Amino acid sequence: MTTAIDKKTPVYYNYVGGEWVESVSKERMESFNPATGELVSYSQKSDLNDVKETIHSVHHSYQRSDWAVNPKRRYEALLGLARKMTEKMEHLARILTMEQGKTIRESRIEISGCIDTLKYFAGAARTVCGRSIQLEPNNFGVIVKEPIGVVGIISPWNWPALLMIRELAPALAAGNGVIVKPASLTPSISVEIFKLIDEVTDFPKGIVSIITGPGSLIGAAMAKSDKIDMISFTGDTSTGKAIMEMGASNIKKLALELGGKSPNVVFPDANLDKAIPVIGKSIFISAGQICMAGSRVLIHESIKDEVVARLKQFAEGLRVENGLLESADMGPLVSKSQVEIVQNFCEIGRQEGRIITGGRQITGGQYDNGHYFSPTIIDELPASCRVVKEEIFGPVLAVQTFSNEQEALEIANDSDFGLSAGIWTNNLNRAMKMTRGIKAGTVWINTYNKNFPEAEFGGYKQSGLGRTRGIDGLMEYCETKHVHIETD
Ligand code: NAD
Questions:
Q1: pLDDT tens-digit series, residues 356-404
Q2: pTM
Q3: What is the residue with the minimal CA distance to atom 17 of ligand 1?
Q4: Fold designation for 2-258+463-483
Q5: Which of 80, 100, 190, 338 is close enough to 182 for a disulfide, judged by CB 3.0 to 4.6 Å?
Q6: Residue 166, by phi and psi: left (phi above 0), alpha (psi -120 to 50) or beta?
Q7: Which residue from 400, 447, 397 is spatially nearest to 422, judged by alpha carbons?
Q8: What's the 318 CA to ligand 1 centre distance in angstroms?
Q9: Is 257 annotated in the active site?
């Protein structure tokens, strides 16, 4: 539910036990439009009392309703939400752009992705299958998949709708009760989606809740709670590590989707007409605030000058402006502090390498109230440079050079992360050799950023734990029980 305290700015409430409730303390948080600095909404600044109440309410609903054992109800509920989101597509996309800053075209893609994910997992809810095995002449095993119980979902701000739904849909499809804690920079879009959940009568009252508030308090309380059986976290690797420690108290099941520093590897036989715009978009989409951003480009030395020149031309051709304008190719960064982080990395790049283009905040006129940053390419960086090693989460592309396949593999894998990679070549043997050698959860060949609810996604190394999407993504939200039958 929303009300407006100044008749203009919406106030979002927590959704607990199937009701819209104010936080116990009645304190509120504000969220702002990163393109203009304008106030977008107020939401509840929940505290530990709210967390306790919410956990109790979801437990109650999980135990009293037939949700865990009624796949057809779960199918209808998820499909119902997909229909509601389809009806509200443009409304949701506009709120997403106003609060997060991404372009309206990208917001439409994000909301469509939510709808597609809900439809896929609606169907999957009816296929939560185990298996059976004959073990001995009189012994038969039935392997049953069951929901885990109460799941806490903690989401980030960069793709706040899709990354919430990406976990919410399989968690609910598997029959769990769920508490969502969205990022504090982007509560509005998440609560707007819950307003639609409230309209779908197939969800038992209280089976799914949302509470807003600071991650260091609310998220941490969820991670520590002995009454939450699993945490699904998407966010920064350092927060993921802290959650692993906090979840240890009750050996909580964890699914972690963390950061990346993904390479696009370009060989001399690549189709550059296709590769250049895709590689450019892979880093400048969402102004680089995307976990699988192609933030490193590894170029064969024989084509380096040409590829860098063409990427520079691509970056300089992008229209950076308020995401609500249909013409925008790239919106602002999400916050002032994000600009400062990116600016610092660019300073390091300036000192240790060579800025090919960008490297500065965009100011003046319409830009002064927003957090705009120019699409940036940096070359000639040492392999140990922080710009090459760390996730920047901004529109900054680091250029690296190789002379043969082995060296390309070594450079691609010289990272603490292993989320994704792109290989650009028309030689199938080379593509397969690189694919097997690269330690990443997703490898795209002659494309990038193609994601589907039916195809697993997740990280090697410090990019995560477990898989989201696809059958494995559904199974993350299930326990496995062996039922053993002995006959006479
Ligand atoms: P973040 O870790 O700062 O915050 C993520 C969520 O965790 C937010 O809801 C936040 O409130 C909460 N949180 C913060 N501190 C917490 C704590 N101590 N205990 C519990 N919860 C806490 O991440 P972010 O800045 O919102 O998102 C950017 C990061 O997310 C990047 O590193 C990006 O790569 C990663 N990411 C990964 C994926 C993926 O699928 N692998 C997708 C998107 C983003």
A1: 999 999 999 989 999 999 999 999 999 999 999 999 999 999 999 999 9
A2: 0.97
A3: 216
A4: Aldehyde Dehydrogenase; Chain A, domain 1 (3.40.605)
A5: 190
A6: alpha
A7: 447
A8: 28
A9: yes
